[in-house]
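Continuing the batch. This is chain 6 of the set; chains 1 through 5 are on the previous pages. Same settings as before, nothing changed between runs. Recording input and output for traceability.
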Amino acid sequence: MVFGIVYVSVTARHRQRMAMIDKGMDPGNLMDRDVPMRGLRNGLFLLGIGLGLLCGHFMERAMYGPLPEEQGDNPLPYFISVLVFGGAALITHHLIVRRKQQG
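Output for chain 6:
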């Protein structure tokens, strides 16, 4: 299944590039539309995930107290925190890039 997904994505990209060449366009321009400051975006996103996991841990302890070993962890606070902090990191990246592009 993974092989099929990779194959379809590679052939679709190849077809797109061939269509651009047929129309006289430069396929190198696809890189211009790529995400600016990709390293910053990835770094902020990973930082947001880490902070979300940490906040989820604290939130779980605050909401449920110390849980017995056999009961295990409740994953809901972790999911909520990771989504909130990851989204905040991506919004922060967008604001930084927009401010830099405006001058």
